Amino acid sequence: MTKAYITAHQDRYLHELFELLRIPSVSADSRHKTDVRQAAEYVRDRILEAGADRVELVETNGHPIVFGEKVVDPKLPTVLVYGHYDVQPPDPLELWNTPPFEPTVREGKIYARGACDDKGQFYMHIKAFEILMKHNALSCNVKFMIEGEEEVGSDNLPLFVKNYRDQLLTDVILISDTSLISLDQPSITVGLRGLSYLEVEVTSANRDLHSGVYGGAVANPINVLSQMIASLHDSNGKVNIPGFYDQVVELSQAEREALNRAPFDSTEYKRELGIAELTGEAGYTTLERTGIRPTLDCNGIWGGYTGEGAKTVLPSKASAKISMRLVPNQRPAEITELFTKHFLSIAPPTVKVKVTPHHGGEAAVTATTSRGYRAAEAAFKEVWGKTPIPTRDGGSIPIVALFKKELEVDTVLMGFGLDTDALHSPNEHYGIQNFLLGIETITAFYKHFSK
Amino acid sequence: MTKAYITAHQDRYLHELFELLRIPSVSADSRHKTDVRQAAEYVRDRILEAGADRVELVETNGHPIVFGEKVVDPKLPTVLVYGHYDVQPPDPLELWNTPPFEPTVREGKIYARGACDDKGQFYMHIKAFEILMKHNALSCNVKFMIEGEEEVGSDNLPLFVKNYRDQLLTDVILISDTSLISLDQPSITVGLRGLSYLEVEVTSANRDLHSGVYGGAVANPINVLSQMIASLHDSNGKVNIPGFYDQVVELSQAEREALNRAPFDSTEYKRELGIAELTGEAGYTTLERTGIRPTLDCNGIWGGYTGEGAKTVLPSKASAKISMRLVPNQRPAEITELFTKHFLSIAPPTVKVKVTPHHGGEAAVTATTSRGYRAAEAAFKEVWGKTPIPTRDGGSIPIVALFKKELEVDTVLMGFGLDTDALHSPNEHYGIQNFLLGIETITAFYKHFSK
Question: Among residues A359, A379, A404, which one ends one of the domains?
């Protein structure tokens, strides 16, 4: 029944999603403030249209949260759907084959910023809800909480969760913002890494200098920043910050073996990325390095002259954005402090260093024994004909830990993207098949969850 | 006589210079191609007006060279004036207190890109020539060769010098593109460093990646580039490239002592730059580090997300502009090759590295015993009341070595800027007093040179 209905309506679903993808709701960029609000309003209207009792835009100190609900019967179980309507900046623009905010279909995939992360994914929930409403088949209460600041650290979410605690009461939180192993092998994410994100600035002289006149006598902030960044890893690929690994939970041999049972073809992985060699912390596999081990990456660096041609400048400043992916028990605030203290301590006396924390988020591990997990498992089996494998993802959705702590409820990470969907990158895309199968699987989830 | 005449005409001189400074003749930026030509035409017209017999724009593969001459009598000695009408890019624009191409006078200084380097400096020569013509006092032949590619490596100058060899015959080359020790202590530059300028690019994956999904397993090009840059200096501040110092001429103890006799106040130097500590190659003084020792500086670095806020991207590429200042006997081509070979050799197998040479230039040492030097010395004594000190400058004017080699003639580097003039930096400026004293000193030079 569901599949046929979805097929009959898929053009409209895609049309609606495309409308949403056309709104450049880049939360990191203040120039897009009104676009972000417009996306929130669009989401609100679609949830209302799908059959919610009420939907509101809850104002925050940043971008609004779309909160809506449909109460079928207070005695029935409740599902809270979380998602985010904000997107990553589209830079570098010149690498997109088609404009990031003009969704384009090529080879069965929707190309647009946010196609997968997370507009395409949370929108499946609105459509699954609509289908259940249309067929009078909704056997749970449903709440929607779609925020606009996930890509900038969900700074205003904790206060909202605190203030709306009573209205957020639920039996499970359902999130589609992660990846499947492949279309042949469904999976459910049971672990997410946390995040600590900082910006550092190294200042030498009080102005840009002529590199001929001062070069060799005055510290070059780019050279100094490079030395400082280089020192943040040791020769084994370990993060070289005192105390960084102190709280890291080491997995048992059995857990590591289970994790490494997931299909992984390193030749294909390298080929698809166009690289000759993998890298990482010595003693761990790629799946472990991206799933259960903490990391440190520079996300951006800039300083001096970056235009065409040559400029012989000894710049005044150089800066970098640096983030660390964290694993369970590593507290972002503590890691941010360890980083800051260490980074300031390694600064040579020739420069001034400023460290500005951006945002952080706790790592999370979700149960595979919960009612929600079992319902998701059953839904995948029904629609995909295969039992999903539990996997650990390297990404971060900081609110999973927050929900666990504040609402004392488990999250089910039922994502339908693929790691190759170019999230946060140029040419982000989302398979139409993933989108349609996702709607079908989510619809099945409700059936199994309310059993 | 000259001083009074200059005072009477200084408003017009400044007005003319300001017109030239308003033309954004940024040679590095192809968007400014027509501006560069406009500057060349302006210079041509002013030299003609001042009394030259003929002035032409000589076309090259890049920007044109302004070449003009005034033959008083073929039997008289000839002075060839070299300068450049192109300027450095004005970036970063936001740090300018007033627009770079809208010259503004504050506290006796002209603020504009090119005010000192080199429009303000070569323009003094046109005005000195005009004064001598007006007073029928020119006792030499004069040639002007004002090029438009000094800031991008003078790539097309060697061919021009070769083709125009006969027309360039001269007894001395006079250049004002360097600095004085101070307005209280005149100096003449007798040494210039050479330059090798390159751009490097480190590529990891074939696209930007999500740092959560791939971080820890795929090489981060910013981290790798930082490590590579960091390794280019050893712990003594020496450039860590095999063979780099092989050709460096070590100065004798006596030469070093003479060099260090120049007034230098490190407390004031640091205060003026706003830095707590100096840096550099162990075993050398600041004057030696900036004058007689080769150096390596990053002039720019970029990669990943550099916008507002946070983006958790594992970028595909990171790049840097790196230049080395060279000393006599270090050949730019050889150093460029040593750098390239070394930089490729230290690249880990996880990334691809590309090295693109930008431009280079030979170091130069000029004689203090030549007729030209003695005339310059006498001119300074007459106008400033003090004997100028010979100094070694850290900057590069590659054509000095070229002229010596091709034309077999000595250059006199009679500069009137100050190291604090913010060359290549925001808020570049040039003292009006320097400009006017410069015109007077150059006028005196002709008198002494033709004696």
Answer: A359
CB contacts under 8 A, B 181-220 vs A, are: 193, 195, 197, 204-220
Q: Lowest mean pLDDT of B63-67, B237-241, B268-272, B393-397, name the range.
A: B393-397
Please report whether residue B278 resides in a domain. Answer: no
Smallest CA–CA distance, residue A448 to chain B, in Å, is: 30
The band of A1, judged by pLDDT with boundaries at 50, 70 and 90, is: low
Q: Is the pLDDT at B395 greater than 80, yes or no?
A: no
A324-345: per-residue pLDDT in tens?
999 988 999 999 999 999 999 9
CATH, residue B121: 3.40.630.10
- Res B1 pLDDT > 80: no
Residue A398: predicted pLDDT: 73
User: Average pLDDT for residues B154-170, to the nearest whole number?
Assistant: 93
Q: Within an 8 Å CB–CB cutoff, is residue B348 touching chain A?
A: yes
More confident residue, B153 or A143: A143
Report the DSSP pairing between strands A65-70 and A317-326.
Answer: unpaired
For residue B442, which phi and psi values (nearest 5 degrees)?
A: -65, -40
| Structural domains of chain A, count | 2
Nearest residue to A311 (alpha-carbon basis) of B395, B89, B145: B89
DSSP string, A355-408: EEEEEEE--EE--SSSHHHHHHHHHHHHHHSSPPEEEE-SS--THHHHHHHHT-
Q: Which of residues 243-262 of B touch A (CB under 8 A)?
A: none
Interchain contact A280–B (C-beta under 8 A): yes
Per the domain annotation, does A262 fall within a domain? no
Residue B214 and residue B123 in one domain:
no
Q: Which CATH number goes with the domain that contains A313?
A: 3.30.70.360
pTM of this prediction? 0.80
Q: How far is A378 from chain B (nearest CA, A)?
A: 26
B231 inside 8 A of chain A by CB: yes
Assess whether A67 and A116 both reside in one domain.
yes
Q: Which pLDDT does position B397 carry in this prediction?
A: 78
* Average pLDDT score over residue span B277-303: 96
Report yes or no: A427 at the B interface, CB cutoff 8 Å. yes
Q: Is the pLDDT of residue B341 over 70?
A: yes
Boundary of a domain, candidates A321, A340, A359 = A359
Position A206 pLDDT exceeds 70: yes
Taking the C-alpha atoms of residue A129 and residue A60, their distance in angstroms, rounded to an integer, is 26
Say if residue B41 is in the same domain as residue B175: yes
Residues A210 and A346 in one domain: yes
Q: State residue A311's pLDDT score.
A: 85
User: Are A94 and A229 in the same domain?
Assistant: no
For A275, A296, A338, B98, B346, the CA distances from B316, given in Å and listed in that order, are 10, 16, 28, 37, 19
Which of residues 69 through 98 in chain B touch A, CB cutoff 8 A? 88-89, 91-92, 95
User: Out of A346-355, B330-339, B362-371, which region has the weakest mean confidence (pLDDT)?
Assistant: B362-371
For residue A225, is it within any domain?
Answer: yes
Tokens of A420: 């190759």
Closest CA to A410 of A367, A353, A444, A355: A367
Q: How far apart are CA A401 and CA A362, in angstroms?
A: 6
* Nearest chain A residue (CA) to B232: A223
Tell me the average pLDDT of chain A: 94
Asked if the Cβ–Cβ distance from B207 to A280 is below 8 Å, we say no
| Pair (B78, B91) in one structural domain | yes
* B37 in a structural domain: yes
Beta bridge partners of B58: B65
Find the domain containing B318 and state its range: 196-248+294-358
